[in-house]
Design a protein that fits this description.
It contains 6 helices and no strands. It is mainly α.
Length: 171
């Protein structure tokens, strides 16, 4: 049920951004990238999780192992990308408020897409490749990334709040 809701909601967002020319801005493209990664979570991760549970109930241990491995790798990768893109959206909004009219000179759709591609590549490398090389210590890497991204989100949100509050007082 959640997979269907996730897929329909994110597909609607992607279609709206694709079909509306006014939404072809860096901020909306970044939100589209977030919707795309969340769509993949609904299409792949949530359905693999259902498959894992079915294999577990059916006591099909071979199928359970394969599905669990696929589900774990894809969940770490895709949810990690979603989390990093949420941080990128927050930083994008901070940059837009800070730069005002100079925003379009520094931030473009191609740069947003390049940054998103880097996020995807790093996520795949960290969550899949390093998982096979590191065994027990592997969990330390996502933990550090989570803490750093949480700090970035907190700081950027606080700065945005201060800017908006100052602007509100001036008005």
């Amino acid at each position: 049920m959640f997979s269907i809701i996730t897929c329909v909601g994110n597909s609607t967002i992607l279609l709206a951004i694709k079909n509306t020319r006014d939404l072809h801005t860096p901020s909306y493209v970044l939100l589209g990238c977030l919707a795309f990664s969340d769509l993949l979570v609904g299409l792949i991760c949530q359905l693999l999780f259902v498959g894992v549970k079915i294999a577990e109930f059916e006591r099909s241990f071979t199928m359970y192992c394969w599905l669990r491995m696929l589900q774990t790798r894809s969940a770490w990768t895709k949810t990690g990308v979603s989390f990093l893109i949420v941080a990128a959206v927050s930083v994008d909004r901070l940059i837009a408020l800070h730069l005002h009219l100079r925003y379009s000179a520094f931030v473009s759709v191609s740069r947003v897409l390049q940054a998103t591609l880097v996020i995807w590549i790093l996520s795949v490398i960290l969550c899949v490749v390093l998982r096979f090389w590191m065994t027990a210590e592997w969990f330390f890497i996502p933990l550090v990334i989570f803490v750093v991204v949480s700090v970035v989100l907190t700081v950027s949100t606080m700065k945005i709040f201060r800017m908006v509050r100052r602007h509100q007082r001036q008005i």
